[in-house]
Structures are given as structure tokens and as C-alpha cells.
Amino acid sequence: MLRLSTPGHLRFGQAAEFTANYGGAEANVAVSVAQFGGSAAYVTRVPENDLADRALAELRGLRVDVDRVVRGGSRLGVYFLEHGASVRPTKVIYDRAHSSMAEAEPGHFDWDAIFQGARWFHWSGITPALSPGAAEACAQACAAARGRGLTVSFDLNYRAKLWSPAEAGRVLAPLMRHVDLCITSAEEARTIFGFDVPADAPDKDERAARALCAEFGFQQVALTARQSSSADETDWGATLFANGEAYPSRRLRVGIVDRLGAGDAFSGALLFSLMRGDEPPGAIEFAVAASALQHTIYGDYNLATLAEVEALVGGAGGGRVQR
Amino acid sequence: MLRLSTPGHLRFGQAAEFTANYGGAEANVAVSVAQFGGSAAYVTRVPENDLADRALAELRGLRVDVDRVVRGGSRLGVYFLEHGASVRPTKVIYDRAHSSMAEAEPGHFDWDAIFQGARWFHWSGITPALSPGAAEACAQACAAARGRGLTVSFDLNYRAKLWSPAEAGRVLAPLMRHVDLCITSAEEARTIFGFDVPADAPDKDERAARALCAEFGFQQVALTARQSSSADETDWGATLFANGEAYPSRRLRVGIVDRLGAGDAFSGALLFSLMRGDEPPGAIEFAVAASALQHTIYGDYNLATLAEVEALVGGAGGGRVQR
Amino acid sequence: MLRLSTPGHLRFGQAAEFTANYGGAEANVAVSVAQFGGSAAYVTRVPENDLADRALAELRGLRVDVDRVVRGGSRLGVYFLEHGASVRPTKVIYDRAHSSMAEAEPGHFDWDAIFQGARWFHWSGITPALSPGAAEACAQACAAARGRGLTVSFDLNYRAKLWSPAEAGRVLAPLMRHVDLCITSAEEARTIFGFDVPADAPDKDERAARALCAEFGFQQVALTARQSSSADETDWGATLFANGEAYPSRRLRVGIVDRLGAGDAFSGALLFSLMRGDEPPGAIEFAVAASALQHTIYGDYNLATLAEVEALVGGAGGGRVQR
Amino acid sequence: MLRLSTPGHLRFGQAAEFTANYGGAEANVAVSVAQFGGSAAYVTRVPENDLADRALAELRGLRVDVDRVVRGGSRLGVYFLEHGASVRPTKVIYDRAHSSMAEAEPGHFDWDAIFQGARWFHWSGITPALSPGAAEACAQACAAARGRGLTVSFDLNYRAKLWSPAEAGRVLAPLMRHVDLCITSAEEARTIFGFDVPADAPDKDERAARALCAEFGFQQVALTARQSSSADETDWGATLFANGEAYPSRRLRVGIVDRLGAGDAFSGALLFSLMRGDEPPGAIEFAVAASALQHTIYGDYNLATLAEVEALVGGAGGGRVQR
Amino acid sequence: MLRLSTPGHLRFGQAAEFTANYGGAEANVAVSVAQFGGSAAYVTRVPENDLADRALAELRGLRVDVDRVVRGGSRLGVYFLEHGASVRPTKVIYDRAHSSMAEAEPGHFDWDAIFQGARWFHWSGITPALSPGAAEACAQACAAARGRGLTVSFDLNYRAKLWSPAEAGRVLAPLMRHVDLCITSAEEARTIFGFDVPADAPDKDERAARALCAEFGFQQVALTARQSSSADETDWGATLFANGEAYPSRRLRVGIVDRLGAGDAFSGALLFSLMRGDEPPGAIEFAVAASALQHTIYGDYNLATLAEVEALVGGAGGGRVQR
Amino acid sequence: MLRLSTPGHLRFGQAAEFTANYGGAEANVAVSVAQFGGSAAYVTRVPENDLADRALAELRGLRVDVDRVVRGGSRLGVYFLEHGASVRPTKVIYDRAHSSMAEAEPGHFDWDAIFQGARWFHWSGITPALSPGAAEACAQACAAARGRGLTVSFDLNYRAKLWSPAEAGRVLAPLMRHVDLCITSAEEARTIFGFDVPADAPDKDERAARALCAEFGFQQVALTARQSSSADETDWGATLFANGEAYPSRRLRVGIVDRLGAGDAFSGALLFSLMRGDEPPGAIEFAVAASALQHTIYGDYNLATLAEVEALVGGAGGGRVQR
Predict the structure, then answer these.
(1) In this complex, do E296 and F89 lie within 8 Å of one another by their Cβ atoms?
(2) Distance from first CA to last CA of chain B, Å, rounded?
(3) What residues in chain E have per-residue pLDDT under 70?
(4) What is the rounded distance in angstroms from the CA atom of residue E222 to the CA atom of residue B197?
(5) Å from F93 to nearest chain E CA?
(6) Has residue D201 got a pLDDT over 90?
(7) D316–E89 CB contact, under 8 Å
(8) Does the CB of F98 have a partner CB in chain C at under 8 Å?
(9) Which tens digit of pLDDT belongs to each residue from C45-55?
(10) DSSP for F246-274?
(11) pLDDT over 90 (residue B269)
């Protein structure tokens, strides 16, 4: 997707130019894994044009394998972004209908070839929201991944501008049985799957995780928990539920340069950490620190390095100049 | 007026370019009313040149009727703006002497024609500060407005770089009898009209409002109350005094993108709210929320929408992305 | 030196352009003195090229005398700067090896001619860190300055990317006997000179200052004390130790536009204040206020005016627009 | 439509930002008429979002009446533009499928209400190329306009990326009987309608015009004739065929700032000139001069003034500074 | 003066920002002399504000002595600039009335102190056009300069937006007796002083020069001769008339980056060349080459170096990269 | 290398920012080959820092294999670029001494591993100019390439700022025996190797090529022939000498957006064309068209596509918009 942002804090009505960034939920996750030194390939469908070429060149430059991307269809998804400030929320205008991916059909992807050599498959709830064809492609990918013994992770990523909670629940629920690791938030889980966890229960994350595992048979559930007081600052943390236990992270107070992509940065870092064999307490701290840093980076990609994330896990963050 | 701002936080001595915005106290008020869906016409005098054309095109684009603007004179007023940060205050260099409006004379305006079809007239204390001719034009406008039965509102808007408190008081006092709604602050009222309200009295706003009504016979008085700790953040609220009672708003903590125009946004929103028949408690909350949002918008105009203001009145502001 | 910064909060990997600023520790100090109305000349060695010409033109424009600058060598020192945000620290890539100054040799400077008419000599610990030749030039300058009866001030300015604490201590210690006023921090003094002052002692600044005076015979010691919680904000203050007594400043909470050069702004303001005869309590407040303002100014130079510093000393800083 | 251009001469693959301009064939024509002092209303269908609001605000600011614009559908048409240079041609990526206008249906427009008070209707061949629904809307508009006695002008504006010549001919031919003034080029006419005029005949424009009139019964035909040697410069002229006679303009050599919108500028100026009663020789010179100036203006709108066009008609253009 | 230019080729109505450059006819001349290595001081009157400080800092940085500049009055002169292209001329909006210099009075300048140590005085015809006070200051300066034996040079620099030819002639004629070297063009001389030299006479420059010497007793006359075919390119040359003989330069075809300041660059280079003792043929070639280069430099100052001018005099200019 | 260019036509002394591009002679060649669809790996030595990471990411994104790049040393080479205009030449300030590549030593490269799977080796005369170590690395690479049967091509690329003709000749001559295809110009060959071909001989290219083959035993020689009249435009063509015959290309007149990298674009296109088996006449036309297009593209890389080059070979270039 092409993201077109108004400069600084300008509103849509004021913008004489847009800053261009390329991204997308799964692409962002792949970038995170690759930036930390992992190996990641990205699969999607994009048109044969110069904008899509640029998007792929960026990913390739960041060490994401894009050789399995399918070319075709007529347009790259676009969204317009207006950064909020203080009491004014960030605003998004989606223009992603009819994108190459939204018009993807199951036959476009040869999952057996795509999964050759892979051991993990990650997908996001945004993709099936695009169109029935995209949803069907997700379903086939999940089945193929499971059939080949890949670990499957899933980030719910509910977008109210794309579908209703009811639609989302109806489409996603049957796919959940293929998922090993589910990434969401207690609030999202309640909205989409209707779990009856009170929003203000002190152990709401653990209860939501248990309910998700009970319902869908997930091995692990990661729940992010954001508390924002304004568009400029957030309080950020998460809980990983694994082996029947909840591992809450410490919470970080983070000033925001660009909030978008934080959830993907969380997913990417969590995947990287789990893939390299970190235990749950370490993995959840790594994922929270990585995504905290992503809030301070313009664009959807998390360009924080492994060393930077580990320094923040280790207690840095006080703002000393590195010189 | 043409506002020329240094980019970002650069000082005047560093700026190799200036960002251009057009505005002016009454123009900003008109934009607010028009943006919320009200009907507003703006009256001023600007020269016949391309800069003035641009200023009028912007206003026209924002649905402000500029057909009654008088063309003539030799220059558009200019001011240079350096945005402050933290302990460094925002700085303004005025270059508005000899502007077309400063050189306006009463004969330039045919108030009867101008007020055709109008029901409300709003003016600001900056205009009579420009020159005796501009002050005389204000006086004639007030008289004509009152004569035609328009509601007259007035924003004191004292500018120390334009005139002294004594001068301001001397020129403005006689005009006050035409005013129905006076917008100012307790501190301004004390400075200009010499009311003896202690700056730290807990009920200083109510006492100032009562004094103003007693002295000048206003129907309503709105007093804004800003408490700034730095150039980056402010605490913002206001009180509307109407029917002998004070209606204080809740107070908002607001991060600042651009402070200029906040007072005009308050006036514009208050006018809109009162014109559509809101009761004082609702009107003052609407005006405070609208002007809080304006602090987060670059330029003098308040480009917040009616829906956004109402969402903030209703408790939004926590920074959630709208997607 | 040429500083090349990524725009806004972009990371090095994202930058398609760099903002150019010129500076350097001693140059920044000279600018401060000259901006406040003092007389300052800057001595260094820069190549014969257009970039160095631009650097000198800027300094000359700001009233710094650059007529004693030596031209020669092959390159201007460069450093690349990535501004941090919140939990992400600011990052510097030095590219100053082999600069004209790093390749300076003692014979390049005729200190007797240079010090003609001077009464004060200030140098920074960065210069001897560049190369043995630069260190030798510093030593000769110190000796010549002392020989001519100039007051000598020194800012330790330790840079871990240039040398180790042990190297710094070994090179700097013998030069300290020429120094009248030493500017550093308790932490730096401990790191470089090994004073055994516990980092959390409440009177650690005073104890460090006493130890420095005892060891090196300084007349005065100024210790800055920064406490940062993030890359966006800092708590800032200092202590001046003179005549056997410690004069701590009040502490200021400062939002950060650009942290670089704050130490130099402190030194420059302190020198100016002492040169004009301020007493220690006034001098340290002036220096802290000046460097607090410098945090709000882009680039290494402190472009705050004398009046602005004095206003902040006097209690301003609340963010009121000057209009 | 939203046009998103790469800055300067950057290629799509290099652009980190896009400059935003709003336009569209008929909108550009309306702007020309309004800028010269004529009265023009623009009719189209755009979605209910902030980008469309901005597009309409720009037009309203330029005095184009947009009150008859229909709101609905899901997206504003977009195109991406890469400015060529010298031997490298300008490149366009269209992303206008599924725009609100492409999905317009005849029932969306109440032509009788729309044409209230109008005396001229202009449309472009791009609109029916968008979709069958848009083509049907054009047909109904033409019929309604003719039925109400409006003069109908039409700019063929063939776009190879939207449809084939055969499709264009098939859709457009039946609509031609409603057209009074047809604007095209000899080459376009040959391509779309298959007139057998040799490309190198010296009188090819006159012959094409006669053939068009004979075939479709046009009152007038205007044929532009561009001869480009590079992306930077063009040779520009036109012929108006009216009352059975051909009126060729003088030819101008024009350096190009931005080629897009030149044809619309020609149409707009020709309409304005004919509407105010200019004779053919004057009208064609006015239209050629106006569109020559438009080549020197960034964006699709022709922002040249009436005085500037008339000066160029009168022989200016030599580059003397106006001071 | 502060020059505010629209970026690139944007029109005034399109500009959301202005590029700031500082200049002025005599300042530009001083910069040229100083950049080539000469010694130059600039005298004017500017207000006490940050914009004037910046203007002076730039000049000081470029080695122009600004210590004799008088501070006072209320505003810096401003002009707005829209760069033309091809058939569209460059456009200027002056906003210099009431500037500090326009409101200068003779008593503001102590010419005896100002001319201390000087040997040459240069002034431009723009200054007396500003106001009677400025004209009177010019007259006193000329008399004082002549009285002290300085060489006096004068650049006619007629600006139609400031005064009429008749006014210019009336004010300037009496001052001409103080002038040794007059710089103008044949066309200007005819317009202002009414010499009857046909515009198309092949020897019109020589005849105009002879007439000027005969009328006013000039020692030398330099006449520039520009022939522009568009806003992008010019044909440029000049003639120096000295010792009763005309020395025409070769003519150069020059592409234009920024035309403003070319005449001042010519004057500055001519002064420098004559001051260092060049003979007329060398001096006129130097001045033409210098001002040709200035056409390729953004802003009013000529930042070409002595070596670059001499290389162009020597036949360079073919565009080879210097690497 | 990092190239830092002043924006637009600004001079070094005016630039407040620099545009960053990454490139280098051999990197540019590799990009050309990869962009046309060939397979290319780039070998160099760069430091372990974020700037080098960015440089490699760009190349990787453009499909150049950078896995064989050696990391080490302390700095990336830098050069500063000021784009000329018209009579003002483009200017370069090199700052590449002590770069990681300049400090490379033969032991840094394992040529046998590097050449695994390769069939062609290309190098440029800039590399041995950097330092004796770099020259030695070139010598070893040539020998290893020849030993493994690779075709070796060489672009002389003489840079007067790096070494004298005599030095260049002395270092390069012994390496020539490893070279199959030599790319240079008649003028360069004369300067460096002293061939006695008159600069104005009509067959000077053929004579130079014959002399080079006779002296060094090249299989093929390609000679570019640029004729510039200004910094804005060039006349461009080349001759390929192969099998004892000269194949001159047609000549193209090209407007210049950015001249740097044109020679590398020629080399890259020639290599691609020869590698895919084009005959000499086709190869030289392809290479000239490709490098003509590169003049119109900002930065050192040739981002023209295969289709665009072939269109220009086939006669396009007339500036028609592709829409």
C-alpha cells in the first residue's frame, strides 16, 4: 500500500503535498523480522506499475524477499493519512477498494511453491477484510501452511472502516483453527468475538487470553494494551499468554512521532523473538520495546535495530546523545 | 493579513523561507462560522494585487462571502511569526502600518449595503487599533449595525504592540454601548478598563463579567482563561456570563501546534453556537472545545469540523486513530 | 565542522536530504559571547574550499572575528546527526578524522600574534581528542595564553567516540595547570580524572568541584547537571564553585528542539557573564537560562538574545506570545 | 481528480513525496472562464471526504460555482504524474477507475435543475471514457442542454489509457449531433473518426475541420496543432473553422513548466472569447495565447489573467521583468 | 530589502511559502566588490528588528562592512517576486513604501564620518525614488563625496513602479554633476533624460554615451544592452565609454536562473575592475562576464568568484564539470 | 559514496541543506545492468555504519547483489555537488580520502570467492586513483578475473582532482593487458596515454581506438564524444570499435537535469547490450540512448527502463505525454 501523509500536522484541507511511504500490515511485520536479522518473505499481489516497483524495491532493500509477490490487477491500495496532535485524533481516508490484492483470487497464489522452505506464516485480519477473494486466499494460505506444518500467527487488526465487527467475526472465526499464535487486544477480542470480559477488570487481559485459547485452541495469545491520553503520547504494554500462564510486560510511556505500524512492529518483534527461541517473559519485553521504538519512527516500518531494542529492554531510553 | 512564519522552530535569523498563511481576527471568526455550516461574510479593505486575491480566494474557498470586501489602498498588512518552543516564547514582528485597512476611511464602506440581510455583526479590538480612520469605520459600523437591529459582538483582543492600554480604553469605551456580547479575559478587562478585580481571586471571572455588564450594559460576556506553562502546552477554559449567571466550561490541557487564532476560534464557535440557539452551558463548552482543537491546527483558521468539535465536547480527545 | 542532520525525526536510513549547520565546540562558545554583545575571535584550521568559506561567513555574520583562522589541510570535519525522540536516543556518526584541524600541527599557529589584544582564552576537550598534533597545539596555546596573562577556561566535553577516558585523562591532566575556570560535570570529572565522588551523593557537585580545585588548582569550576528522562525533555541546572563556595542555580524543565550545543551555550554565557563582572550567583543563573533557551533552538549556535536570557532569568518562560 | 506529481524531475521510483493538485478536464475549463471574469459552474460527482472538500474549496476560491456538484460514491479519481525532461517523456499512471464520477449513473444528475440559468454547456471526451454510466450521463446532459437551447461545446481529449480509438468513436459519434463547437486536433479526428486526411498535408487542419462539419454538422471546429521536439519545449498554434472559413493563429514557441491542462486552457479561453463576442480571428489568438501561458504555470489550472493573455496576444513575451 | 519569492515557477496565487533573500541595489554592488576581494562598506537605514539583523548578518558574512548602517524607522522594505518562465514575464509586487530608508531624512546620516577612509561612492537611482527625504540624503551624500574627492558612480536603475520618467529626470538631473561614472542603458537614458537617439541605430550606445557626457560631464559611461526573447534566456553585453572612445564587450547568450540583481552585478564588477586599475576593454569584459554569471545564481547577490569570472572572460562557459 | 548536492541551482555558499544520493562509478554501472534485467553484483568496501547500510539498501532494492561487499574501515567516501547552469559549470568538492575503499588493502578481498559464478568484471579508473592499496586491489582483481576467464571491461574515467595524467598513465598502463573492452574518450586517451591524435581530426575517434588496440591489445574500444555548449545542454554520441571497424552512433541533443553518472550509464548499457548478444551497431545505439536518458534523471543511477531506452533508439524523444 501507498500511504500518503500530509506534512507535519497539516490537515487534509491544507496539504499541498503528501509524503509517500509504502507499507501494509504483513509487509511491516516482514520488515521487522528482516531488520532484526531474521529471514522473511512477503507475499501479496500488486499491479505492474512504477509505484508498485518502488514499494517492492524498498522492501527488497530492507532485506525482505519479494520474489514471491504476484503481479497483476490494476491498482496499488492507497490510504491518506492526517497526523493528529493533542486533542485532535489522527485521521485516515482509505482508498484501497479494487486494489490488486482486494481483487486477488485464490488461483493467483500457488501456496505450495510459496511456502517452500518456510517455517512460519503470519497474516493479518486486514487482508480478509478487503474482499471475499482476499478472504478466500487467506483461508487457502492458512490451510496450506498448516498442512505443511508451519507455525501460523495472526494479528486481528480490526479496521472499522473496512468491515463491521459482525462481518469480521463471521469471516475470521472459521480461520482461527489454523492459528497457533493470535495477536490482538482484549478490547478487540471482545468486540469481534464477543467474549464477555469487563473492560475494567484488572485481569481482563488474562481472562481474554484464556477465553480465546478455550474457544479457538490457540497455543499462544499476545494482547497489546494501549492507553492514550492524546495523539502525542501513549502508555504502552502487552501480555503474552503461553503455556497457561500470563506474562505481562512492563509498561512504557512513549512520545509519538508516528503511531501507525506500532501493532505490526509488535507482531514482527514478537515473531522474531519467539523464532530465535526467547522465553515468553523475554519475548514480550522485546516486542513491547521494539514497538515502543517504532512509535518514534516516521512511517510504518520499524527501523529500530536489534541493539537499540535490546538497549531499551535493558533500561535505556533516557535520551542521552550517543556520541 | 499575510502571516509569514519561519519553518518549524527556526528563529527569524535562521529562516531562508517563510510559510505563508492568510488571516486576520475577523476573517478567522468568519471562517469558523462558515466551516461549521453557518453563513458568514467578511468585510475589510485590501489592495488590488495578487496577494490580496489569494487571501480572498482562500476565504471564498472556505465558504466565507467576500463580495463586500473593498479593494483599494496600497498594501496588505503583513506580520512575521517565529514559533516558540518550551521556555522560548513565540514572537511576532508586525508590519501592518499603512495597510489598506489601516488607511481605510469611513467613506470607504457603505454599511447599509453591507449589512443587507445580516443579523449579527462581529468586530475585534485590533481593527480600531490600526488607525483613527479604521477606528472611525468601526464606530460607524457599530452604529449602523445597532440601528438595523443586528446583534453586535466584540472581541477585545488587546495588542500591546499596536497601542497602549490607555489609548485602547479611550477609543473602545465609547463603542461599548453598541455591543451585546463582549469577549475578553479578566486580565484584559482589568488592563484596559481598569476594573479592580484581583488577579488571584477564585471568582475573578465572574466578578469581571459582572463589572463589565454593569459598566457597559452588555447582554453577555465571555471570558477566556488561559494558563500556559510553556510555548508547547496550555491549559484552556472559559466562562460565559449570561442572564446574570456564570457558566464556566471544563478545562482542557492542550498541546500546541500553533497558538495563533485560538481566541478567534473561540469567538467564531461561540457565535455559531449562540446563533443556532444553544444554551449558555452548551455554547461555552462548544467554544472551548473548538478553540482547543484550533491549537492543534497550523495557521490562524480553525479547520476543525462540527463533528470533531462535538466529539471533543462529548469526551473524545484520547488520541485513538480514526481508521 | 559541518553538521548534517536528517530532517525532522527521520532515521539515517530514511533521509533523502540532510540539513546543513556549521559549528564546533569553541565556535559555538564564540557565537554566544558575540551574540550577547561581547567580542570574540575564533581560531581553528579549515581547508580552502567553499564549505569552509560558508562556515566562516556564518560566523563572521554573527560577529565572530574569524580573521585568525588558519586555512589549509584537506577537509572540513563532518558529523551526521539523527535527532532522537522519546525513548529513541539521538545518534551521531562522526566523520572528523583527517580534518584540517585534526591534521593541524603546532607550527600552523602563531599564538603570540593570535592572542594580540585578547584577555581570555577558551578551549574544549574535544580539540586535543582529534589528534596528537591538535593536542600539542592546545598545549602551546595554553602555555602562550598563560604566559600573556590571559584567563584560561576549559570545557572538558568528553566524547566517547573520540577517545577513551584513560587517554583523555592522560592527555588533559598536564594541561589543567594552565586552566583558571574548568567547566565539566561531576560525572565527567569522575570518569576522566577518577575522583571518588559517589554518583548519588546529594552534595556530589560541590565535592567534585572541591576535588578538582584541590587537584588542579582551578580558580573556578562550573558543573552542569542534566537529568533526562527522554530525548524530548530534560531537567537542567548547574553549580558554579568559586571562592571556596558552591552556587547552585535553580533547575529548569526544558522541552528539546535540538540538544546539541547546549554545553557550549552554557560555557559561552558563563564566560560572557563573568567577563562583564557578574557575581557567581548571577553568572550561573545567566548561564543556565541561556543554555536552557539553546535547547529550544535548532542548530548548535545559541541565537537567544541577551534580553531573552535575562527575561528567563527573571521568571519568564510561560509561553505567552509576544505581540 | 487529485493529481499527485513527483517533485521536480524525479521519477516515480525516486519520489518520497508527491505534490497535490486538483483538476480535471471540465474543471480546468471552468477555472479558465472564471479567472478571465466569466461565470462558470462545474458539475461532477465526488465523494464525501476531506480530499473532495479540498478540491471543491479550490474551485470555489477561483470563483467556480460548485454548488451543483453531486456528492456520493467512494473515491476521488487519482492520477500520478512524473514530469519528463528533454528526451524523456512525461508519464502518467491513472488510478481513476471506480471514482465517484466513473460510478455515476444518469439518475444522479437532475439536468434541468443544473442547467437553470445557463447558456453554454461544455464537456470533454474523457468523461464518457470513464464508464458506461458516465457516458450515459453525458448523453443525457447533451440532450438536455440542446433541448434548453444551450450552446454545446466538446473537447475530444482522447486518452489511449482509457479506451481504444474504436470504442471512443463508437461512443462519441452519436453524441456529436448535440455539439455546436468541437475542439480536437487533426490527428485525433483522424484516429477516432477515421477521416482520411494525410498527416503531412499542408492544409490538413482545414480539411479535417471541413470533414468534421460535414459529418457531424458542427457550427465551429477548433483544431490545436502541437509540435514538440522534447519534453521541455513545444511549438503551439491552432485553427478555428467557422462560417466555412479557417482562421489559423500565429504559432508560439513555448518553454514548458507543466504541459498538463494546456488543451483545457485552450478550450476555456476559446469559450470565454466566443462568449464575450470576439470574432474568430481574435478568439483563436486569445485561446492560443492563453494556453501558451498555461504551459508556463504549474498545475492543470490556467492562472494567467485576462491582462496577461491580452499582452501576449499583443506581442509581449520577451521576458522583461515587470517592476 | 527582504525579497520574498514564490518557489520554483509558482504564481503568487499558488504560493504556500516564500523564499527569503535579502538585497537591494547598493547592497548587491557592495557584495560584488567584497566577494572579488575588494573592500566595501554599505550605508542604509534599517529598523531595529530581527529581520534587519539577519539582512546585516548576511552582508557582514560576505565581508561587507555594515558598521555604518543607521538603525531606526519602522520597517524593512519588502518585495514579492514571482519568477516568470518562457512567455510569462517575471512579476514584482513592491511593498517598500514607509521603509526605514524611505523615511530617512538627511540628518540621519553623518556623511563626513561615513566617508572616512573611502575613495569611491556608488549610489543607485532607486534610492531617490523612494521619497523626498531619501532623495535629499542622496544629494547630500553626493555633495559630501565630491567634496572629499571620492569618485562617484551612479546606476540609473529606473523603476516604473516607483516613479514616472519625468519625476525621475527632474530629481536626478541636478545630481548628475556630482557623478564621474554613469551606468545605464541607451533606452533608459532616452526615457529619463530624453536624448534623441533612435532605438535601432547601430551605434546607439556610443551616441547615447556621448550625449550623456556632453550633457552631464561624466568621465565615463557604461551602457548595458540586454536582448531577451523569453524569461528563460537573454543575450547580454555592454559598452564602456571612456576617454572619448566606446569599448563594446563581446555578447553572451545566458540561460537564466534568476535575473534580478544582474545590473547590480554589472556595476559591482565594473567598479571592482576599474578600482584595481583594469583598462576599459578588460573592465567591460569583466563586468559583462560577472553579470552573466549572476544570471545563473539564485538571489540578488553575485556569488561568482573572481576566478570564475576570469575563466568566463577567458572563454570558459561550456559546461564541463569541474572534477 | 554519498553524494551531497545543493538544492536546485544553489551554490555551496547558499545551501542550507544537501540532497543525499548514493552512487559510485562501478555501483552506477551495476544498477544499469540490473535495471535492464541483467544480473549484477557490486564489490567494494564500506564502513559499518547507518549511512553505508542505506547505500547498500538502495542498491539491493534496485536488484544489485551487494552480498560480496566488504565491511570495514572508518568512513564512506563523500562528495559535495553544486549543479551549474548555463555559463556556470557544475562543481565538485571531493571528500573521499581515507574512505573505507581508499584504505582497502588487497587482503580485504577474496577474489576467487567473489568471482564465483561471474562471467564479466567491470572496473573504473577512479578506483586505483584512490590509493595505492586500492590500485593494488584492482590489479589483483584484474588478474583473478582474467585467470578465471571473465571478460574484463574498464572505464578510464580520469579525474583531475584525484591524480595527474602522468600518475594515472603510470598506474593504469600495466593493468591494461587484462582488459578486453576499454571505455574512454579520444581526449582522455590522448591525455593519459599520450596518443598523438589531433583533437580536431574528423576521424579522431577511430584513430584513437586503433591506437589503443595496437598499444594494449583490447578487443573492443568504446569512445564517448560529448560536446557541451553550456551546463544545461549537451550533444552526445559515441563510437564502438570492434573487429577492426568503427561503429559511430547517431548523435543526440540532450537537455540536462543531472549530468553525473552519464558515463557510467553508457558503460552499464553497453555491457548489458553486449552481454545479451547485440551486434556493435545496436549496442552503441543502445548505450548512447540509455546514457542520453540518464542526463534527464536526477542522481547518478540510470533509472530509465529497457522499454524507454528502446523507444528512444527507435526514434521517440519528442516529448509526447504518455497518457
Answers:
(1) no
(2) 37
(3) 317-319
(4) 72
(5) 8
(6) no
(7) yes
(8) yes
(9) 999 999 999 99
(10) EEEPPPEEEE-S--TTHHHHHHHHHHHHH
(11) yes
